[in-house]
Amino acid sequence: MAGARAARTAACGCDAGIMKRLRDFTMARVALGRAGNSVPVREMLAFQLAHARARDAVYCPFDAAAMASSLEGLHVRSAARDRAEYLRRPDLGRRLHPESRARVESHKAEYDAAFVICDGLSALAVEQSAAELIALMRARLAGWSLAPPVVCEQGRVGIGDEIGECLGASLAVVLIGERPGLSAADSMGVYLTWGPRAGRTDAERNCISNIRPEGLSTHAAGELLLFLMNESRARGLSGVQLKAPPLQSSTAAKLESSASRTI
Fold it and tell me: Which of 123, 178, 185, 252 could bridge 189 with an S-S bond, Cβ 3.0-4.6 Å?
């Protein structure tokens, strides 16, 4: 049996030792081994645990009121009445509840930027990383007029367009829990949109993703976000026309060892 497996491995050009070493470089499920016609029990249990963590991330309650209080911001909610409706109706997660819209509009002024924090599909992610990133940005954005942070329950990325427009902000920055995968249930994304208003498309945003302890650190994300915000304000745009710094720049040098992605 062992000889047959070795022959099959050799036939497909694979080396068992190389496949196992791949696990040092990725969290993907590679080189799991075999137990008859299935995978080993430990790998099956690990898969089930990862799946349970991903489900928990989606349904984990978000204490938006506590976060809004700690950040001295506004607590609002989307038009989705509860988690079940939020998951079934993505469109409702992109719109403010009328009462929340009125609350946001009462703070309208001329701001350079507005930070919006949404639970998205992982409240765990924003509870773990959002406050730290906001603190970093507040310390680095000297000379910027910042709106009160808005913490939104049952929100999706697009709700930042409405919130930014209601506040009178030139730039909306949405911090949101990303869709959990089987290797990361606590990943936060940041979406930046110049001139936020209803109808903006994903092509008009920039994204920094995989912000978590095992991915892109909040410090590295803050460096990249600072670059994008300054460039966005200077050029009056965001999205596909606004690129991350080239690899030879000092900002990118700080990021080259981190798992970052911008779109």
Answer: 178
What does DSSP assign to residue 149?
P
Q: Which are the contacts of 139, defined by CB distance < 8 A and separation ≥ 6?
A: none
Residue 85 domain flag:
yes
Task: Report how many domains make up the chain.
Answer: 1
- For 44-75, letters b (16+ CB in 10 Å) and e give eeeeeebeebbeebbebebebeebbeebebbb
For residue 207, being part of any structural domain is answered with yes
Backbone φ, ψ for residue 40 (5° rounding):
-60, 155
How far apart are alpha carbons 173 and 230 in whole angstroms? 12
**For residue 100, what is the domain's CATH number?**
3.40.50.11240
Query: Which residue segment(s) compose the domain that 207 sits in?
Result: 59-255
77-125 confidence digits (pLDDT tens)? 999 999 999 999 999 999 999 999 999 999 999 999 999 999 999 999 9
N-to-C CA span, the chain: 48
Tell the burial category of 210 from Cβ atoms under 10 Å away from its Cβ (0-12, 13-18, 19+).
middle
Strand order in the sheet with 171-177: 74-77, 150-153, 114-118, 171-177, 188-194, 205-211
pTM: 0.81
4 lies in some domain: no
Q: How many CB atoms lie within 10 A of CB 93?
A: 25
